[in-house]
Specification:
Number of domains of chain B: 1
Keywords (chain B): ATP-binding, Nucleotide-binding, Transport
CATH topology of chain B: Rossmann fold
Distance between the termini of chain A: 49 Å
Order of helices and strands of chain A: HHHHHHHHH
Low-confidence stretches of chain B: none
InterPro entries (chain B): AAA+_ATPase, ABC_ATPase_HisP-typ, ABC_transporter-like_ATP-bd, ABC_transporter-like_CS, MetN_ABC_transporter-like, P-loop_NTPase
Largest sheet of chain A: none
Structural class of chain A: mainly alpha
Helix content of chain B: 25-40%
Oligomer: heterodimer
Family (chain B): Belongs to the ABC transporter superfamily.
Number of strands of chain A: 0
Shape of chain A: flat
Protein name (chain B): Polar amino acid ABC transporter ATP-binding protein
Strand content of chain B: 15-25%
GO molecular function (chain B): ABC-type amino acid transporter activity; ATP binding; ATP hydrolysis activity
Mean pLDDT of chain A: 91
Distance between the termini of chain B: 36 Å
Mean pLDDT of chain B: 96
Strand content of chain A: under 5%
Order of helices and strands of chain B: EEEHEEHEHHHEHEHEEHH
CATH architecture of chain B: 3-Layer(aba) Sandwich
Bound molecules: adenosine-5'-diphosphate, magnesium ion
């Protein structure tokens, strides 16, 4: 039987962690969406050097472990004089990491729009940017929303990396409570439940949007 | 109106257009035929610079298409293009499909653009579909919308790249009828097609291509009665006997 007394007695600590996990997720989400969009545009713009920068970013970042990126922000940058608290370092690492995946989702969404759409638009006299805005992007958004939703779910789960550098998130407080009470199983079950409170609605929301977009085709 | 002089084009090492010389005058209907892979689409797509040429000269409506300073959007608004797979915008209604370029390129008001769109929808015979989405239309209807979309820019030239190849046999006729009407009204048309009946009836000239070259160019009565080129004969007998 799950010991709910642990949850009740440490409710404040759980809430602290829960709040920080939400905060880190939301901040990293906004940041990675902006950064990811820029990187995606770098990758498809008809300008070679930008393509290289975009590709380098994506290939480099998504092929190293998240925890290493977070270590760079937490311990690597202080070595060159830039200092972050553990929460900020963790959130920045999370943002930089997720941006690579979001860039890929957005890029592949734009490129999934059939080539004939751009050709039809351009041959009617629209400029490249007009064609993007009125013809390509509205179609790409529908393609991109489901994979973006999945990236957000991953982002929430990945925010647990903050625990590794004492980033005040759910995972961190879970560790704290566990070391105080010498209980592991129950403590982490409650941690898991808090994550589910965040991810299940997200997951359902993504599924709902996906179905609606399919119908709107 | 359209003038190719010694035009060559390569895709990497692949020589897709070889020494093309072709003149198309205002009001002419030129039908391009030839086996698949012979470069018909590439030739047509050079006219509005969807493809760029590697050498030679290409002048359309008095403009050297591949010159550096050319405002390509300016040129393209005068050239309508109809594709094999329609390429209608799936997220827009028929009316929005037709009015997008008139509004954004020509700066027409929505009301004016709508009126023009309705005029051309009447012309292609489906005014009742104005508010439908492309996915709700048959292939033949979609292609007629695509033609109306091209016409709404009041172009001087219309390009057709196998406009009926993706259609069910029973809807091919309705699209060809619209094209015949257009030809009758004096539109300058370049048409890639395998519809020999249409070519025979409507074309002023047939251009036969094979392996990147124009092998023969003749009025339809001459061409269909007795193609000079052996390869044209083989091609014709194959396409007429299947
Ligand atoms: N973008 C491309 N890159 C390389 N080869 C191409 C490209 N587009 C067409 N080709 C080749 O050029 C040749 C002519 O193609 P195309 O003009 O489409 O012929 P057609 O319309 O007569 O069937 C074909 O062999 C085709 O494979
Ligand atoms: Mg072709």
């Amino acid at each position: 039987m799950l010991r709910f007394s642990i949850l009740v007695e440490h409710w404040d600590l759980y809430m602290q962690g829960f709040g920080h996990t939400i905060k880190a997720s939301v901040l990293a989400l906004i940041g990675s969406l902006a950064l990811g969009t820029i990187i995606a545009i770098f990758r498809i713009a008809p300008i070679r050097p930008l393509n290289w920068v975009g590709t380098a970013y994506v290939e480099f970042i998504r092929n190293i472990p998240l925890v290493l990126i977070v270590f760079v922000f937490f311990m690597g940058l202080p070595a060159v004089g830039i200092r972050f608290d553990s929460f900020t370092a963790g959130t920045l690492g999370l943002m930089v990491y997720t941006a690579a995946f979001i860039a890929e989702a957005i890029r592949s969404g734009i490129q999934a729009v059939p080539k004939g759409q751009m050709e039809a638009a351009r041959s009617s006299g629209l400029t490249y940017l007009q064609a993007m805005r009125y013809v390509i992007l509205p179609q790409a958004v529908k393609i991109v929303i489901p994979p973006l939703g999945n990236q957000f779910i991953n982002l929430v789960k990945n925010s647990s990396v903050l625990g590794v550098i004492a980033g005040l998130d759910l995972m961190y407080y879970g560790d704290l409570i566990s070391s105080k009470t010498f209980v592991t199983f129950d403590v982490y079950i409650f941690v898991a439940l808090f994550y589910l409170v965040l991810t299940i609605p997200l997951s359902l929301g993504v599924g709902y949007l996906e179905r609606r977009l399919l119908k709107a085709r | 109106m359209i003038y190719f002089h010694q035009v060559n084009k390569y895709y990497g090492d692949f020589h897709v257009l070889k020494d093309i010389n072709l003149t198309i005058n205002q009001g002419e209907v030129v039908v391009i035929i030839g086996p698949s892979g012979s470069g018909k689409s590439t030739l047509v797509r050079c006219i509005n610079r969807l493809e760029t040429i590697s050498s030679g000269e290409l002048i359309v409506d008095g403009v050297k298409v591949n010159d550096k300073g050319v405002n390509i959007n300016e040129l393209r608004r005068n050239i309508g293009m109809v594709f094999q797979h329609f390429n209608l915008y799936p997220h827009m209604t028929v009316l929005q499909n037709i009015t997008l370029a008139p509004r954004k390129v020509l700066g027409m008001s929505e009301k004016e653009a709508n009126e023009i769109a309705m005029y051309y929808l009447e012309k292609v015979g489906i005014p009742d579909k104005a508010n439908a989405y492309p996915s709700a239309l048959s292939g033949g209807q979609q292609q007629r919308v695509a033609i109306a979309r091209g016409l709404a820019m009041k172009p001087k030239i219309m390009l057709f790249d196998e406009p009926t190849s993706a259609l069910d046999p029973e809807t091919i006729g309705e699209v060809l009828d619209v094209m015949k009407q257009l030809a009758k009204e004096g539109m300058t048309m370049v048409v890639v097609t395998h519809e020999m009946g249409f070519a025979r009836e409507v074309a002023d000239r047939i251009v036969f291509m094979d392996q990147g070259r124009i092998l023969e160019e003749a009025p339809p009565e001459e061409f269909f009665a007795a193609p000079k080129e052996e390869r044209a004969r083989v091609f014709l007998s194959r396409i007429l006997n299947h």
